[in-house]
Protein 1
Amino acid sequence: MNSPSLYIELGQTSFKVLKGDAGLEIPLERLENGGLTDSCREKLTHSLRDFLKKKGWQSRSHAFCAIGARGVSLRRLTLPSSTKEELQRVLRLQIESEFPLPPEELAWGYRPLDSAGRPGIVAIARQEMIVVALKKEVLAEYSEILAGCGVNPVFTLAALARNCLCPQPPGSYALLDVGRSHSELIAFDNGAPASIRILPWGGEDLTRSIAEKLGITHQEAEKLKVNLDQEPVARAELGQQIQSAMGAALEPLATAIRSHWSGQTIYLSGRSARHKDIAPQLARHLGGGVACERLELMPGEGRSAAILGLKRSTEKEGGSPPLILRLKEAKGGESIARPAPWKWAAVAGLLAIAALSFPYAEALLLKPRLAKRLSLVKADKGRLSTIDRELTFLQFLKESQPPYLDAVSLIARSAPAGSRIDSLSMNRRGDLALKGSLKD
């Protein structure tokens, strides 16, 4: 039976995992350069191994990993028509001219667009491509940690994974994922990603605004924000103050969104976007008839919008995420190499044949050794009669020999000190004759 697929979201402040119905969230600590601290790497590796519970004999499993938009560059490129063999070379040349770093220092992936600007089959006259790239060292760090836990990672962009949960209306729309300290905004044009931005606004801004408006501590404001949908506001005055604080916090967010996007529909995801008043208030601040909708997600640990979208896309697209970011260049297409079912059946058949033929193979392999041992046994069998005769003779001597030792011992104890025995003889009947002298 196949084990449940592993889905991971690699965020700036958290590491989220989903395997089957079990989820895990691990906070991350980073250095000034953005890398993980040594203690965080050790804790992450230990927690992930405990969560996976992989045995040493088990094969390495695939993990679909959604990476955040920090440090990611997304470009839409128009390439000349080329064959599949030439596509990698043409893309490398274009990436070298469009991106600040050479392809060797980037982890990058691409997705073709059809003539209408949607992901699909490459057009014949021209090739429209969506290219996503980031520094290779970002993915290399996660790849090393996951490989140490017995997992082969397959990386994709988290914003594209979240898009799999959107209804995708025609025209221009956007998806905003609200994090703790920042938000990711990705804009789509006719279903194709057009741009991606990091906005310096998160759930902490909303908490800070509530705390300042109500004159309470940050912890109390966070608790009040979390319970907005669970508990009704006791007083109308308190409710109005919270609404006013939310409006003041959302104003700079709406300004930042409008500076990067001008569509008519925006979808919200993230823990802070779950509150029912966020969407309508953001829509009012955006103005222009913009529709703002929340993505309804299944609650639970490890069930973020990126993970659930990645899960839906891999199940729908036959095991392939929306776009694959590769640390090494692939010579083939973008699909993930998976053993075909007939290969597993062939392996099972070979194992069954090997199990049935093992006793016969063992007999054939050990036959020369057994034949040699049998010839040695036959050769030793001829020596048994000689050994029996010699043993019988020795037993006869032992039974018929006179008791020399007993007689000598008796004489030695009886003779006085200074006695000397010159000769001593005894026959089979026990007759004893001796010659000697006594002292004095």
Protein 2
Amino acid sequence: MKENQGHLLRNFVFLLLAIFMVTRAFAQHEPKPQPVQLSSEAQNTLKTLQSLGSLKMDGWRMHPGDIAHGEAVDLNDTDWKAVAPGTNLSAEAVWFRKTVEVPKDLNGYDLTGVNINFQFHVSGNGSVTQIVYFNGRRVAMGEDLEPIPLFMNAKPGDKVVIAVKALHSMDVKRFNNAVAT
């Protein structure tokens, strides 16, 4: 009986060793993936396709501190400071404004009938509550807001005045970016 068990154990060990050797041999001969080299034409096409995902959202203006009716469409914000993504701000309330217009096309593609969503990103050490207005009407309020419908069934030339109030926070704030997708 012990002789049979010893024979079975040797066969089992031999089988494991054989499986290990075969697996190792296949692994050594498996081709390594090579990085894909795209032609310059393909790279340009890829850049164009990536740019179709969002409208440019630069040109924001900001006003530090609280003001009455910073969301009003007819508010004159020409003396407000231009602000770019990456700008650090104080802990006090801050208003941001921008007028967005649906362009005739985006890199040659007609935008008629598309839905465009908006998202504003401001961060701080702790939560930062935002109140978002489109054409003077509040459309969202909260922290880390989901995308908000900006244009439904867009038509070239449609315009919206966006105003965002970032409320007083525990610490300094940072304007990260705004996107329209």
Protein 3
Amino acid sequence: MSWNEPGGDKKDPWSGQNKEEGPPDIDEAIRSMQEKLGKWFGSGNSGGTDENGLSPKAFGLAAIVALVVWAATGIYIVDQGNRGVVTRFGQYVETTEPGPHWRFPTPIESVDVVNVEQQRFIEVGYRSSGRQQAVGTVAREALMLTKDENIVDVRLAVQYQIKDAKDFVFNVKGPSPTLKQVVEAAERGVIGKSTMDFVLTEGRSEIASEVSQEIQTIMDNYGAGVHVTSVNLQDAQPPEEVQGAFEDAIKAREDEQRLINEAEAYSNEVIPKARGAAARMTQEAEGYQARVIAQSKGESSRFRQLLTEYEKAPAVTRNRLYIEAMESVLSKTETVMVDVKGGNNLLYLPLDKLRGADASKNIQRSRPAAVDRKPAVRSTTGLRTSSRGREGRSR
């Protein structure tokens, strides 16, 4: 249906009746905003307004409000354990302690907050996960040459803190990368002065201590404001290509040391016993020597005294010597054979039984001892004849 037909829309596209409203005029929007601001600051339609509609009083008040807001942006708070490094146009001004502070707002002054109590870590030769577990080796950092021209795989962990926030911010550009390079250089220098066996066995603690001192000396010379708290040698081992052969060498060295320890233990057990036995034998020999010498001296003295008595009374001395000799001989036997002179009977005296009988009758002291009993007579025909009787045996 056309626009001029009956019942049509009756809207002429050229008449302007269908023209939509356009965007608002920018000048009108600015003018309306100025009027509202003029009313807000009390300018109204007074004759003191400038050509933009703002009075000097309103402009000053706006400037004061803006200045207050700008000054409020200079308030900052330093948390516990941090330090604030304040700079004015890039030049150091001061270091602030924890707490609320104020500075000239940007761009006049700025603040760099540095955490001086945080424990920071640097890993050389490996990378760890969040649980501080080694997850990979960095061969470029880990492989090092020793004094005896061997290659070792060393993993080092360095823990440090910031001791001076100003030095940390200003003196060194990129303190953490610089520290890592210093750690690697110091580690290679210390490893290069040590042998492979020393690095892999008993020298770990000594190497870590020497590396720590070297790192601290270099960083102090740089004035980096860093304090190295600990250096830990996480692992030191030969490269993977020779790992098996090196483990065999370690086992052989351990077996050697074990055998040496066992031999030393056996030696420590046997030598004192042998020394004790030797000392005991020496003492026994010395005692035997002293006893024999003393006995010999006593016998010689006794012989000289006996000789003197013999020269005075030879017969009495001979009889005494005979009696003492017989007493000494007969006291060592329990059986006595008595040969009767002129007869063929041999008397047997069972002294052991007699002694036993005497011991059992000691309680009957009122009864006389059986001294008149005749000893048992044993027929010894054929053993001893009357022709063998001698005066010596009848005694």
Protein 4
Amino acid sequence: MKSLTQKTYHAKAADIKADWYVVNAEGQTLGRLATVVATKLIGKDKPTYSHHLVGGDVVVVINAAKVKVTGKKLTDKIYYSHSGYPGGIKEIALKDLLVKDPTAVIRHAVAGMLPKNKLQALMLKNLKIYAGPEHNNAAQQPKELQLDKKGAK
């Protein structure tokens, strides 16, 4: 008699094909943009998703300097870093970080939404962020990822 058990599909590294997407961050809310980008990097929107592989897509974010935040976050949101030495804490407000390095704001938001494991650094390598409208990845022919005010369409 034939067994009636089902087999669970697990993708192999050779089965995974990464697509390229370009996202325009101009006028987009930071958190909603970061959730869409994180989902694409993880690959949870693909039928070949496997939690033990980097199966996501490559995402190019342009116009990072024109991202929008709501409420009083521009002045009240503080990013902290610590050197590990006594008195080695540094802080910078979101408003100042947008002027100094607008790509760091989006990278920090997306990194916080990725899984905290060894794959996080590999997924972040698939995130390319540019402060202006120009990017260096035209040769990969990225598809435009359309976003509305609430996130992905």
